[in-house]
Amino acid sequence: MGITVNETLDAKGFACPMPIVKTKKAIAHLEPGQVIEVQATDKGSTADIKAWAESTGHQYLGTVEEDEVLKHYLRKASDHESNEETEYEEVIDLNELRQRMDGEEAIIILDVREHAEYAFNHIPGSINIPLGELEDRMDELENDKEINVICRTGSRSDLASQKLSEKGFKNVKNVVPGMAQWDGPTERH
Amino acid sequence: MSQSITTKELARRVVNREDTWILDVRNTDEFDDWKIEGDSVHVINEPYFNLLDGVETLTEKISKDQEIIVVCAKGGSSQMVAELMEEAGFTNVYDLEGGMKAWSEHLEPVKIADLNGGGSLYQFARLGKGCLSYMAISENEATVIDANRMTDVYERFAEEKGVTIKHTIDTHLHADHISGGRQLAEHTGGTYHLPPKDAGDVTFDYKPLDEGNDITVGNTTIKVQPLYSPGHTIGSTSLIIDDQYLLTGDILFVKSIGRPDLAGKADDWVGDLRETLYSRYKALSDDLVVLPAHYSFVEELGEDGSVKARLGDLYQRNEGLQVDDEQAFRTMVTENLPPQPNEYENIRQTNMGKMNPEDEKQREMEIGPNRCAVHG
Questions:
Q1: Which residue among A11, A113, B146, B252 has its CA within the 20 to 30 Å range from the CA of A106?
Q2: How many domains does chain B fold into?
Q3: Domain of B251: which CATH number?
């Protein structure tokens, strides 16, 4: 699968500790929230990247193995997301989202996380438009349906909901807290 | 440049119980799974990736003039950390060459005894994994029992002693490590013996290891007598060497007993295990010296680094041999099973010749602790 990322790091052929040392350097240049793909051949790199991400607060998204190459996906830590206060007022929780999914009325689930986050884990049938692309891609959304905006923790979806409502979308809900707590059906591609 | 220490030197220290401080810089999951152990070994874990911005935090745990050996998975990260530590003013830092990978493959030979007619018996302890293998030497011949995959170690040792490896024997189909028995026999032109009941699905030729068919080392001097002793596997066969030594395979250890479940047969084989431990072995001389294929605790290593015990003594103090009630024994064995060894099914397939993984993969399959025993 092709996953859109902000940067790709080639650490193929390097043994431990180099994949992590290089990842650490590369991620320093990214903006918070951006995604990096780290290509490595060292088998131990998966466990180490995961553990390193946990200890530094970066978000480990997943690993794909293609032709003996491990592709690790990481999203740079973003302080903004630990901010739990949301401004957009129409908020629903995950249970309400499930009820709406099971209901008669057709709804849209708009997932505004980065493409790589969405790729490893998302609600079946949801649409992915990363927050950064939303401005340009609003015309992909149908204005007459209820749009349930979701991200990982509720903060990017809050910004997205505000944007949509400013642009005249009438029926927008921010789903909180987000995919981090979602235990309903998911799929990856 | 920091200095390195070899696995051989580290093994010497562990066996001699010298105080040794180790900084293990692998990630914590791997560290928790298995680490270097020893009576006098003190281990601290701090993943290398937490030290990239500086090693000053280590001073909370290690003083700057203290001797410390840095260990990682393969040797790369430990070298980096050791250098960072030296730059930060630590003065007595070593890194373990080859890391845990090399440690898991290191075999430390210890002489167990002189045998009749000038022969001798050696035990090879794989300290990083708790596996024990053996070489019996007589005249110009050798027999290797439960060989590990690092066959070059046995070949070199035989060469040093000026003997030819004529036989390799596995006491059972191993599930915790990849056997070197077949490969070693191929290299030296010897014969590979395997219990036929464990060999039902093997893809290669072997000589059945049957009770009654003794194997000799040297002309006629040393006798290796197979004794059918099922329970860990259906084919498990012990060996009595020179009428004095009982090689128990994975049936009986110094502080514990074997587990019957690695082929998914705990309930079927527990009866065999009981029969072997409480009848067949009981009928043997108390003076036999038990030499198992594993040890689980460092304290099982004797003063000289060997693992052995008198059979009669084990009937006094090994907890697995003190359960008179058959049902209680059954419960103890089937309900106290430790987690199964990593990759045990793939290791069995490899030992049957059904899988033929590359060296690197074989190494990876074996990573982790040995878990062949039931502790009562």
A1: A113
A2: 2
A3: 3.60.15.10
Touching check for A21 and chain B: CB below 8 Å? yes
Query: For position B96, which CATH number holds?
Result: 3.40.250.10
pLDDT tens readout for residues B231-285: 999 999 999 999 999 999 999 999 999 988 777 777 888 999 999 999 999 999 9
Provide the sign of the torsion angle of the four alpha carbons B76, B81, B87, B89, taken in this order: negative
Q: DSSP letter string over chain A?
A: -----SEEEEETTPPTTHHHHHHHHHHHTSPTT-EEEEEE--TTHHHHHHHHHHHHTPEEEEEEEETTEEEEEEE---GGGG------S-EEEHHHHHHHHHSSS-EEEEE-S-HHHHHHSB-TT-EE--GGGHHHHGGGS-TTSEEEEE-SSSHHHHHHHHHHHHTT--SEEEEES-GGG--S--B--
Using DSSP, state whether B123 is helix, strand or coil: strand
- This complex has an ipTM of 0.78
- The partner residue sitting opposite B30, judged by closest CB among A20, A47, A55, is A47
Q: Tally Cβ neighbours within 10 Å of residue B113.
A: 18
Does position B106 have pLDDT exceeding 90, yes or no?
Answer: yes
Cross-chain CB nearest to A47 (options B27, B52, B72): B27
Instruction: Check CB contact under 8 Å for B29 and A47.
Output: yes
Average pLDDT over residues B8-24: 93
End-to-end CA distance of chain B: 48
Q: Residue B80 is part of which domain span?
A: 3-103
Do B296 and B373 touch, CB atoms closer than 8 A?
A: yes
